[in-house]
């Protein structure tokens, strides 16, 4: 199976040479094959979101290499890297244009990278396609194509953002704590939708989460980060049998300290 993501020994230090110097990534190495869905967990400051931002090109890495679909993207800017990626953020407000309708938001996502002329109207064929996609969410949004996205709930917005992020079948889908701002029932629904979209389109995905139960329940692989390094990489039968207690024990065994994130333990 093709290698879709390769992170090769990347380092990142913020505020170098100052009192606030922070070694955020310390030689991170990771390889994902096509169709892998990896969950990423760790305490605050472990390097989870920093790793996703490094892949997305939010800022340059200090050293190392990042490959997506076999292409070296290490020195590409964030906007040039966007054609490889789909992203969903923690804030439901981030991934959509609130004052535009559902169908307009979806049209923007579907036409990403295309030249846009003056005739920007949505065709009947496109409208039928968007309605079919929305119906798979089972949220009744297929009958609300003209509704302004700003009037929707956080869970509905995240579900639409997921569709928008995957409408062009990205090489890699990045989910950065995309259910953290939602109530438990809505978060569970959005995770269910995430699983379905990833499986239906055979996408390669990375999901950062603070929730240990979610990290265990979703995806085919789990990695745990600590002090800017990957210290656990669990997959296959071992992951299927994993419990929160097992994960805490393994973390303490490898790191030599107790897991200190109350947010992860109490989720």
Q: How big is the Rg?
A: 19 Å
> Low-confidence segments, ≥5 residues, pLDDT <50?
none
Main pleated sheet: 6 strands, mixed
Instruction: Label the overall shape.
Output: globular
- Termini Cα gap: 35 Å
CATH fold category name: Rossmann fold
Q: How many runs of DSSP E, i.e. beta strands?
A: 10
Strand content: 15-25%
Describe the model:
This protein is an alpha/beta fold and 267 residues long. It has helices spanning 48-56, 78-81, 102-110, 124-135, 154-166, 184-200, 212-217, 236-240, 244-255, 262-266, and strands at 3-14, 22-33, 37-42, 63-68, 71-72, 85-88, 172-176, 205-208, 221-226, 229-235. The protein has a six-stranded mixed beta sheet, sandwiched between helices. A four-stranded antiparallel beta sheet has the order 2-1-4-5, with helices on one face. Strand 4 (63-68) and strand 5 (71-72) form a beta hairpin. Helix 3 (102-110) runs parallel beside helix 5 (154-166) and helix 5 runs parallel beside helix 6.
């Amino acid at each position: 199976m093709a290698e879709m993501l390769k992170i090769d020994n990347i380092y990142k230090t913020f505020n170098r040479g100052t009192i606030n110097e922070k070694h955020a990534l310390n030689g991170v190495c990771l390889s994902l094959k096509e169709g892998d869905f990896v969950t990423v967990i760790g305490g605050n400051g472990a390097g989870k979101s920093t790793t996703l931002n490094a892949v997305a090109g939010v800022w340059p890495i200090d050293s190392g290499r990042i490959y997506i679909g076999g292409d070296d993207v290490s020195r590409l800017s964030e906007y040039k890297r966007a054609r490889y990626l789909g992203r969903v953020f923690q804030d439901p407000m981030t991934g959509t244009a609130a004052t535009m309708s559902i169908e307009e938001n979806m049209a923007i996502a579907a036409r990403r990278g295309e030249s846009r002329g003056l005739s920007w109207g949505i065709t009947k064929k496109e409208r039928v396609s968007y309605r079919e996609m929305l119906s798979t969410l089972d949220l009744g949004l297929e009958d609300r194509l003209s509704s302004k996205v700003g009037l929707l709930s956080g869970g509905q917005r995240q579900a639409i953002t997921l569709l928008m992020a995957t409408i062009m079948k990205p090489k890699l889908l990045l989910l950065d704590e995309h259910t953290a701002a939602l109530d438990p029932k809505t978060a569970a629904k959005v995770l269910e939708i995430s699983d379905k979209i990833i499986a239906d389109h055979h996408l390669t995905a990375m999901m950062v989460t603070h929730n240990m139960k979610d990290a265990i329940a979703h995806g085919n692989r789990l990695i745990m980060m600590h002090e800017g390094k990957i210290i656990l990489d669990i997959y296959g039968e071992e992951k299927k049998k994993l419990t929160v207690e097992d994960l805490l024990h393994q973390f303490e065994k490898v790191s030599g300290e107790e897991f200190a994130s109350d947010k992860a333990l109490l989720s």
